[in-house]
Amino acid sequence: MIVFFDIDGTIISDDNKHIIPQSAINAIQTARKNGHLMYINTGRTIMNVEPELKNIGFDGYVCGCGTYIECSGKVLLNQTVSSALCRQIVQLVYECDMTPLYERSDAFFIDRRLREIGGFTALKELFKLQGKNISRDVSDADFGFDKMVAWYDEHSKLETFKDCIKEHFDYIDRGYGFCELAVKGFSKGTGIATVCAYHNVPISEAFAIGDSLNDLPMLNAVPNSIAMGNSVSALKKSASFITKNLEDNGIEYALKHYHLI
Known about the structure:
Layout: E1 2-5, H1 22-33, E2 37-41, H2 51-54, E3 60-63, E4 68-71, E5 74-78, H3 83-95, E6 99-104, E7 107-109, H4 120-129, E8 147-151, H5 158-165, E9 169-175, E10 178-183, H6 188-199, E11 206-210, H7 216-220, E12 224-227, H8 233-236, E13 241-242, H9 250-257
Parallel strand pairs: 1-2, 1-11, 2-3, 11-12, 12-13
Antiparallel strand pairs: 3-4, 4-5, 6-7, 6-8, 8-10, 9-10
């Protein structure tokens, strides 16, 4: 069997505490000892997967909404966006008055010309506490991104933005004035297909666990789809099983339910 885990709200609490329950760590490690493959499947880029998460012990990573795939230490995929398109998006975001965070497998970039909207300030402070470098700017000569997130409000030209990016990116609204862009043709679901093919694991033996709307392609890709108890309601409707909340030992409960531990 192979299990794919989202990070935020699934393994680690999606609040200011950022707690990983010990029960989740124990459950993942036990399932792996039982011979099952354990994978992270996240919208984060690989550089944004903290050591404390990696130290739990995983067989690989699907990152950046399927644009980066690593199996047993081997990089299978690292999809990038052309420099010309990156620059077009920067100008579009500027004109649409949004606050972006451009993400690459090895760097984050911001646009200092723009105002800070919504949760961007809080995320920036968190990254500083975690020692992550967010000093890079879109004006840097080597600027580029693999995926991005952005914050918007009533002053932003959101519909214009969505219309202009639809040829190259899939738009994921995360709620609360926050959105995510994934390269068209790539998703958490395509990442699962690639990993299962690599390990020669049939999709019938694949499980996915998540809590937010960007996990929908992942849950739709497998027959054994699990929504955390703390999931958004739209995700729960697409899941074959709803486990308990993260803090109520939801990971352990789900893996026990499917007899993986």
